[in-house]
């Protein structure tokens, strides 16, 4: 009887984690009817586009609060393909959303596997500073990372660009709750 009870608990716990309900940093979920922001929380939206001949499969993102030196890591990544010209899908395009306490943050790096799902564990560096204001959602841009190999060393060319219109169109398509919400740009830093 004890083994049966333990198996049921493991099953329930696994279902909660896989559904995203256990991730306190996740701001948006599909079919969500209202934002669940505490009075001192806000949200951030951004995208990642990987270019180059090396593939990178993101598994998480790390954000650091600048003044308090706290680190926030999100391990759930929404892998949503964005379409380009002629209906073709962009390879290596990902949308991210996070819920964070009020403060000034640095988008530090992305964690994942270089060379695909079964590749080498790697980090894609990034350095984007942004602000979180209570009860507001900010778009901080698209992180364009170009990966290339030079003498067996992996090099990164990182640019953060404004794709507000196209990124928000996809965010609103997958998360209809955003159609009712004003989303600010935070592209100054």
How would you describe the overall organization of this protein?
Helix content is 15%, strand content 46%. Strands 1, 4, 7, 8 and 9 form a five-stranded mixed β-sheet that branches. Strands 3-2-5-6 form a four-stranded antiparallel β-sheet, with no helix packed on it. The protein is globular, with a radius of gyration of 18 Å. A hairpin with a 5-residue loop joins strand 2 and strand 3. The protein has two helices and nine strands, in the order H-E-E-E-E-E-E-E-E-H-E. The protein is of the alpha+beta class and 189 residues long.
Element layout with pairings:
Blueprint (H helix, E strand, L loop, with lengths): L1 H18 L21 E12 L3 E10 L5 E4 L18 E9 L1 E12 L5 E13 L4 E14 L2 E9 L2 H11 L8 E3 L4
Parallel strand pairs: 1-7, 7-9
Antiparallel strand pairs: 1-4, 2-3, 2-5, 5-6, 7-8
| Form type | globular
Q: How large is the share of residues in beta strands?
A: over 45%
Task: Enumerate how many helices there are, as a single number.
Answer: 2
Helix and strand sequence = HEEEEEEEEHE
Q: What is the percent of helical residues?
A: 10-25%
Radius of gyration: 18 Å
